[in-house]
Amino acid sequence: MNETRTRSRLGHYATRTLAVIGGAVVVLLLVALVFTVILADRVPRRTILELDLAPGLMEWAPQEPVALALMRDQLRVRDVVEALERGAGDRRVRGLVARVGTAELPLAVVEELRDAVLAFRASGKPAVLFAESFGELMPGHARYYLATAFEEIVMQPSGDVGVAGLAAWTPFLAVTLERLGVEAEMDHRHEYKDALSLWTEREHTPEQREALLAIVETFHGRLVAGLAQGRGMDESTARSVLDAGPYWGEEAIAAGLVDRLGYRDQVYQGLRERVGGGDFLFVQRYLARAGRPHRRGPTIALVYGVGAVMPGQSRFDPVFGQVMGSESVAAALREAIRDDDVRAIVFRVESPGGSYVASDAIWREVIRAREAGKPVIVSMGSVAGSGGYFVAMGADRIVAQPSTITASIGVVGGKFATADFWEQLGVTWDGVEVGDNAGFWSMIREYTPAERERRDDWLDRVYEDFTGRVATGRDMTPAAVDAVARGRIWSGEDALRLGLVDELGGFPTALRLAREAAGIEPDAPVRLRLIPEDVGLLRLLLRGPRESGWATRGAGAAAVARSLQPLLEPLRAAGVIRPPGALVIPPGSWIH
At what angle do helices 107-121 and 77-88 cross, to 10 degrees? Predict the structure, then answer.
């Protein structure tokens, strides 16, 4: 019996000992996990920021699954600007290395990044850019323009610098439609509004050629100025260098375009040695760990309006791309109006235009914000034309980059008549109509004279309304507005001269103007609050069965949409695919 009791006690002690050991192990694991998380979330004492632009950049992603899944690899313009601003004053950050790939970067976006890089360099920290190539027998103007803001440019020995003069080409489909038996029953207001010329002309009209040439000359002038400033040339030399391109390898060094040839590992190792060692940290991770620069103080709201302006919710459309939904943007502006903490609103606009009615709904909320005593500062991205300018024109102040394509104050509308097309296919149509204008929207036949008159009345009404609101919002006479309207696109540089925008710059300029308008001291800290807040795909998945299922399906739809984008993007750029509605920017010429 004693032996049994002894064994029982030994077993009890062993169990308790194992329990204590097991508990200690669990505690140690938990402590290790906590320290791992803490260490993983910290910024290393010596940090080199790494900016990878190969996946491209975006302004903002609508908070819905397809957009979030489709754009998950892309950095936001604001994130790059704020990471460099934060890093410039962070003693842990010792330098910056950036890499460009083949992704297209609009020139106005590059101007925003250049300003951020130059501000970072002003802190005395080195900034190096590496590229495998600036185009491979392909144009690389925008990517090289960004490179000129860096202290040192390094290119892979096999790379090229694809810069030369600029050209712009626009497709015209009038002959195609004629052969198909389709007639474009469309009109516009006025002679510079060439959104429908894609379907009705064989070449640019003199007015449209004039406007396009002015845009290309502005772009070329920005490239010349950037090259001269960044590479220590006078503008005459810079112009000659650009005109003589493209350049291969050693030729780029001889022309002063590149500092040296090397490979990625050599660039990274060289920068690490230069700053005395350190860990590389992607800018998005740095921003998440270090925090954004504008987190405390009086609140300024940030609202995005990105994509083709359409009724409904902001979303990603597989055909049209990003959509600025009037309901979503109007709701965000209303939320900013209701929030007593919000002192001013920065409204970031990136849009080629779209629906007149949807643009009007957003415009109204901008006006309501001002009536509520909350100044609205518009910051334009690479394009804010037609409906994109409509939603902006009521703001207190408008900021654009020199290369922002803006204005296009005009209207286009109509339909396609397809009777001859169906006849060629052997398809006949028959139907009944009740009322004199019952076939007004029919795609089968042309307008009757009475219907065409009604269409023209509508075009006149929209143009008069558009220009009238520009006159009010910009404090211009009707005659002055008409002189700069008539459907013409302008660069931000020209728009400033003509009174259509107030200042040139990007996010920092808009934030400065918002401070001023709200009566906040220039150097006072502010909290920049994004409305609506970023949700993220994971949080959508966790929101509930209904939304979770939607998000899961959305991720699959995003994969399909992603595969279609290389095919659809050239059609969007050429203007073949454009948002439905009255206020649309002219077809996107291929500038290279």
Answer: 10
Question: What pTM was estimated for this model as a whole?
Answer: 0.87
Beta-strand (E) ranges in 101-210?
Answer: 127-131, 152-155, 160-161, 168-169, 183-189
CB 592 within 8 A of CB 573: no
Q: Is 70 helix (H, G, I), strand (E, B) or coil?
A: helix
In 402-505, alpha helices (H) = 419-425, 449-474, 478-484, 492-498
Return the CATH architecture of domain 47-164+245-290.
Alpha-Beta Complex (3.90)
Which CATH number describes the domain made up of 299-428+441-591?
3.90.226.10
Residues 134 and 215: beta-carbon distance below 8 Å? no
| Length of the chain in terms of residues written | 592
CA torsion angle 121 284 300 311 (round to 10): 120
Instruction: Characterize the bridge pairing of strands 75-76 and 57-58.
Output: parallel
Whether the CB-CB separation of 517 and 397 falls below 8 Å is answered with yes
Helices (H), 41-182: 65-70, 77-88, 107-121, 141-147, 174-180
Both tokens of 103, joined, read 């992704």
| Domain span(s) for CATH 3.90.226.10 in the chain | 47-164+245-290, 299-428+441-591
pLDDT at 34 over 60: no
- Cis peptide bond upstream of 190, omega within 30: yes
| Mean pLDDT computed over 470-479 | 97
Could you please report the per-residue DSSP string of 475-540?
Answer: T--HHHHHHH-TT-EEEHHHHHHHTS-SEE--HHHHHHHHHHHHT--TTS--EEEESSPP--HHHH
In angstroms, the CA 280 to CA 46 distance is 9
Give pLDDT tens digits for 204-245: 999 999 999 999 999 999 999 999 999 999 999 999 999 998
**C-alpha to C-alpha distances, 31 to 22, 28, 39, 178, nearest whole angstrom:** 14, 5, 12, 75
Cα–Cα distance, 254 to 39 (Å, whole number): 46
> Contact at 8 Å (CB) between 282 and 288?
no
